[in-house]
Design goal:
heterodimer, A: about 70 residues, mainly alpha, 2 helices, B: about 250 residues, 8 helices, about 75% helix, globular
C-alpha cells in the first residue's frame, strides 16, 4: 500500500485534481460509448419490430372486404 | 485445411460467433480492470520524480496503445474488405472506429491532465501530441464519412480507403519521440530492450493494457453485431431474431 490513510489516497500526494480528473473523464467517456452502443442495438430491434407490425397492418387492410 | 473459415463470411454465422466470443472478452476485461486500477492507484509505489501524478499512466498508456491497436485492426480489415470485397471486413472498420476515437480522446485528455502538473501546460504543440491529435481527427473523419452515405456498401468502401490513407500516421506517432526533439518522454516498454520501469509499476500497467485490449475486443464485437443487424434487417434470420426477442419480452411483461 502506497498510502497511509484513506484521505491520503484521495489527496494523491497533492495531485488529486489531475489524477481524479483524468480517471473520471476516462470512465465517463467509456460509459457514454457503452450506453450509445447498447441503445443502438435496442433501437435496431425496435425499428425492425415496428416495420413488421406495419407490414402486418398493411396486409390486414388489403384483405378487408367492402372497401376500395 | 482452412475451409472451416468459409462459412464465417456469412453474416449470420459471424453474428453468432461474435455473440459466443463476447462474454470471454468481458470476462478478461472486467477483472483485469478492477485489479489493475486498484493496484495502480493504491499499491504501486509513487514515482521518485513525479510523485503520485504518474498514476495517470495506468489509463494514459493503455488507451494510447490500444488507440493505435484499434487503428491497425481497422487498417487490416479495410485492406481485406477492399481487396477481397468482403462486406463483413468493412463492417469491422465501421464498428471499430468509434472505440478507437474514444481511446484516442482518453489518451489525449489524460495526457493533458498529466502534462499540466509535470510540464506546466495542458497542451504543447509537440510532435507526439500533434500526431495523436491528427489520429483523433482521422478517426472522426472515418466515422463522419461512413455516416455520410446512406448506401452502406459505398460507405464501407469509402471509409476503408480513408482508413488505409490514415495508416501513414501510425509510424509517425510511434517514432515521433525519436525523430523529433519532443517534450513527451520516449518509449519505456515497446522497445527492443529491458523495460525502463520498476517491476512494481510495470505489472499493473501490463494488466491495464490487457484490460483495455480485451474491452476493445468486446466493444468491437458488440458494434460489429449492431452493424450486421442493421444491414441485414430485411433478412429472415434477423426478423426471426427480433420476433423471438419481442415474444420473450411480452411473456415477461
Amino acid at each position: 500500500m502506497a498510502f497511509a490513510s484513506w484521505s491520503d489516497f484521495i489527496a494523491m500526494g497533492g495531485y488529486s485534481f489531475y489524477v481524479w480528473l483524468a480517471y473520471g473523464v476516462s470512465l465517463l467517456s467509456v460509459l457514454l460509448l457503452v450506453i450509445s452502443t447498447v441503445t443502438k442495438r435496442k433501437k435496431i430491434f425496435k425499428h425492425v419490430e415496428q416495420r413488421l407490425l406495419r407490414e402486418q397492418r398493411i396486409k390486414a387492410a388489403e384483405n378487408r372486404e367492402g372497401t376500395l | 485445411m482452412w475451409k472451416w473459415l468459409h462459412p464465417y463470411a456469412k453474416a449470420e454465422k459471424s453474428y453468432a460467433l461474435s455473440g459466443k466470443l463476447m462474454p470471454w472478452f468481458l470476462a478478461v476485461a472486467l477483472p483485469t480492470f478492477i485489479v489493475g486500477m486498484i493496484w495502480g492507484l493504491a499499491f504501486a509505489p509513487a514515482d521518485y520524480q513525479q510523485g503520485d501524478s504518474f498514476r495517470i499512466i495506468y489509463i494514459h498508456v493503455p488507451a494510447a496503445m490500444m488507440a493505435m491497436g484499434a487503428y491497425s485492426t481497422m487498417a487490416i480489415a479495410a485492406f481485406i474488405g477492399l481487396v477481397w470485397q468482403i462486406r463483413l471486413a468493412e463492417m469491422t472498420v465501421a464498428a471499430t472506429a468509434p472505440i478507437g476515437a474514444v481511446y484516442t480522446f482518453i489518451a489525449l485528455f489524460t495526457g493533458a491532465a498529466w502534462g499540466k502538473p509535470m510540464w506546466g501546460a495542458w497542451w504543447v504543440w509537440d510532435a507526439r501530441l500533434t500526431s495523436e491529435l491528427i489520429l483523433l481527427f482521422v478517426y472522426l473523419g472515418i466515422i463522419a464519412l461512413y455516416n455520410a452515405f446512406s448506401d452502406k456498401v459505398l460507405a464501407g468502401r469509402a471509409a476503408s480507403i480513408l482508413t488505409l490513407v490514415g495508416v501513414i500516421n501510425l509510424p509517425i506517432i510511434h517514432f515521433s519521440v525519436v525523430w523529433w526533439n519532443t517534450l513527451h518522454q520516449g518509449a519505456t516498454i515497446t522497445k527492443f530492450d529491458q523495460p525502463s520501469m520498476a517491476t512494481d509499476m510495470l505489472i499493473p500497467l501490463l494488466i491495464m493494457i490487457v484490460s483495455f485490449a480485451a474491452f476493445l475486443g468486446f466493444m468491437v464485437l458488440y458494434r460489429f453485431r449492431n452493424e450486421i443487424l442493421q444491414r441485414e434487417s430485411h433478412r429472415p434470420w434477423v426478423i426471426a431474431l427480433v420476433q423471438q426477442s419481442s415474444s420473450s419480452v411480452n411473456k415477461r411483461g
